[in-house]
From TrEMBL:
Residues 38-151 form the Autophagy protein ATG5 UblA domain. This is Autophagy protein 5. GO terms for molecular function: Atg8-family ligase activity. PANTHER family: AUTOPHAGY PROTEIN 5 (PTHR13040). Residues 167-223 form the Autophagy protein ATG5 alpha-helical bundle region domain. It is a peripheral membrane protein. The keyword Phosphoprotein does not apply. Residues 222-246 have a biased composition (Low complexity). One of its GO terms (biological process) is piecemeal microautophagy of the nucleus. Residues 260-358 form the Autophagy protein ATG5 UblB domain. Its main location: membrane. It comes from Panaeolus cyanescens. Belongs to the ATG5 family.
C-alpha cells in the first residue's frame, strides 16, 4: 500500500533501524485507516416524488438504488441519477423540460438534505435521528438504505443555502477545508501554499473517487497519527539549563495540532462545534469520553463513585456509567477511550472535519 506522508528523509546520519520501522508502521497504519474511511459507502434508495413525475413516465421504475461513496456529495451523484431517469423512466419530451438546477432531495421523513454535507454525514445524521424512534443498532444488522425523495421543481432556496451545482459544492468544500486547516494549525499557510492545480486536484480526487490523487495533495495538509511524546518533567533550579534543540514532538503530528476540527451532531438537534485540543493540560491525550463528559454531560454522565469498602468487599470498584448515548464516526460506533488526535488524523472527512454523530441508546 502506498504511503502518503511522503516527507523526504535524506540526512547525513541515518536514524536507528527501530525508529525507521516505527515510522513505517505509523505511516502504514495512518494510510490504512484513511483508505478504509475513503472506501466506505452508504446505500441510498432514491425515488422521484410521484406527484412530480411527468406524463408518460414509467411509474414502475421511478426508484433507483445506489451504493455511494461516503466522501461524495449529492451534486456528484445527480448525473448518474439523471442518466437512469432519462434512459428508463422519462420519455424524450419530459427529459428535455427538466433542469438539474431545480432538483432537490429530502428524506422519507421530510428532512431537507443539505447539498454541502458529505453523503456519509447525511447517512449517519439520519441514523441518529432514527435512534430516537428505534432500538440501538446491533453489530449483526445490515445497513439499510436511506430513502430519499427526489423533487424535480420548486427548490426551497431559503433553506438549501446553496445551489445544487457541482461548482457551488466545490466552493463549499474548499471553504470547509480552509477552516479546518486554520483550526488545526492556527493559520491557513499549508492550504494557501498549494498551487491552484493542487487545490483543484483535491476536488477532482473526490469527484473521480481516487484515493491516490486526493491524498497525494491532502497529505500536505493533514497531520500524521504518530504517538504523542511523554510530557517532560517540570524544571527546577537544580536542573540543567534548557536545551536549544527543537522538541522531539513531530510538528506534523496530530498530537502537535493546535486543535482538532470537531463537530458534534445531535439527533434532530443543533450542530455543536467546540475547541478540542489534542492534549489535555495534564499531558494526557484528549479522548471522546472527556469531550462528551465536558460538553454533553447529561448524555454522557461521569462514572459513579465506588461504594465504601466493607469486610465482604474491601476493594470495591465503581459501577459502570449508564450508557445513554453512543458516538458514530464514519458509520462506526466509536469507544469513549478513542483519542481525538488519532480520530482527526485517520477518520476525518475529506474536508478535514471530524464529524461525530451522537445517537441515543434505546435499550
Amino acid at each position: 500500500m502506498s504511503t502518503y506522508n511522503s516527507s523526504s528523509r535524506h540526512h547525513s546520519t541515518q536514524p536507528p533501524a527501530s525508529r525507521i520501522e516505527k515510522d513505517k508502521n505509523v505511516d502504514y497504519n495512518t494510510s490504512l485507516f484513511r483508505r478504509l474511511t475513503w472506501e466506505g459507502t452508504v446505500p441510498l434508495e432514491i425515488r422521484v416524488d410521484p406527484k412530480e413525475l411527468p406524463a408518460n413516465s414509467d411509474r414502475g421504475l421511478e426508484c433507483y438504488f445506489i451504493q455511494a461513496p461516503r466522501i461524495s456529495y449529492l451534486p456528484l451523484i445527480v448525473p448518474e441519477i439523471r442518466r437512469f431517469l432519462m434512459d428508463v423512466v422519462f420519455d424524450e419530451v419530459a427529459a428535455k423540460s427538466l433542469k438539474d438546477e431545480e432538483w432537490w432531495f429530502e428524506s422519507e421523513e421530510g428532512t431537507l438534505l443539505k447539498w454541502h454535507w458529505p453523503l456519509g454525514l447525511l447517512y449517519d445524521n439520519h441514523t441518529i435521528s432514527m435512534s430516537l424512534r428505534s432500538p440501538s443498532p446491533s453489530s449483526n444488522t445490515m445497513a439499510t438504505p436511506m430513502r430519499l425523495i427526489l423533487h424535480l421543481a420548486a427548490p426551497p432556496q431559503d433553506k438549501l443555502f446553496l445551489s445544487p451545482s457541482i461548482e457551488s459544492c466545490k466552493q463549499a468544500f474548499m471553504n470547509q477545508l480552509k477552516e479546518a486547516d486554520f483550526i488545526r494549525w492556527g493559520n491557513t499557510r499549508r492550504m494557501t501554499a498549494l498551487r491552484k492545480v493542487d487545490q483543484d486536484g483535491l476536488w477532482e480526487g473526490i469527484r473521480e473517487h481516487s484515493f491516490d490523487d486526493f491524498w497525494r495533495v491532502a497529505s500536505k495538509l493533514a497531520p500524521n497519527a504518530g504517538p504523542p511524546t511523554s510530557a517532560s518533567p517540570p524544571s527546577s533550579s537544580m536542573s540543567r539549563p534548557l536545551s536549544n534543540d527543537p522538541p522531539s514532538q513531530d510538528k506534523d503530528s496530530a498530537y502537535s495540532m493546535r486543535s482538532v476540527p470537531v463537530r458534534m451532531y445531535l439527533p434532530d438537534g443543533p450542530v455543536i462545534q467546540e475547541v478540542a485540543p489534542p492534549m489535555l493540560e495534564d499531558g494526557t491525550p484528549h479522548t471522546l469520553g472527556t469531550l462528551f463528559s465536558t460538553h454533553l454531560p447529561l448524555l454522557f454522565p461521569p462514572r459513579p463513585p465506588a461504594p465504601p469498602p466493607s469486610r465482604i468487599n474491601p476493594h470495591p470498584q465503581p459501577p459502570p456509567a449508564p450508557q445513554l448515548a453512543y458516538a458514530l464516526i464514519q458509520g462506526v460506533v466509536s469507544p469513549p477511550e478513542a483519542e481525538l488526535a488519532w480520530l482527526g488524523a485517520c477518520m476525518a472527512g475529506a474536508d478535514g472535519w471530524l464529524n461525530i454523530c451522537v445517537a441515543i441508546s434505546r435499550e
